[in-house]
Amino acid sequence: MQVRDFMIRNIITVKNTTTVKELISILETNRIGGVPVVDDKGNLVGVVSDGDIVRFLSPNKEKVYLAYYVTYIEEAQKIEDVLRERMNTPVEKIMVRKNIKTLAPDDDFESAIRLISKHHFKKIPVVNGAGRVIGIISRGDIIHTLSKTIFNEDTGIGVSGGISM
Fold it and tell me: Can you list the domains of the chain with their CATH numbers?
C-alpha cells in the first residue's frame, strides 16, 4: 500500500502572509491542528501547528535585569496585551521552516508509520516531485489504515498491497 492510497487529498494550506488571527480561525473552523504553509505555486515552504501558536502567544513572565548596580524589572505580560500585539503577525514569523519531513505519494505505508513514530509528528505533508503539497498524512490516518487492515484480516478479507503484521 502506498501513501497515495490513504493520504488526505482535500488539504487546507495557508500562505506565509496569513496572520495568526486568520490561522486560528482556519484551524478552529476546520477542526484541525496544523497546516502546511505554501507559496503561490503550492510549493511547501513551512508548517505551522496549534503548538506553534500557543508558544507564540504565551505571555512572558516578569524579568529582572541587573546592570551597574541598578535593577530593572520588566513587567509580566498580560494575555490581553499579547493578543492585541501579536494577532496580526504573519505566519512566516512562527512557522517551522527547517528539517521538515515529507512523504512522497509513492512511499509505502511502512515508511509513513516509521516517519510519524520516529519524529512524534501529528501530520506529515505529502509532496510530489515538483515540491507541491498534494496531500497530508496524520496519525489518525495511520490508525484508520491499521484498523481497516486488522478488521479485514479478522474477516478473512486481505488488504491489496498487503501490510504484514
Answer: 3-154 (3.10.580.10)
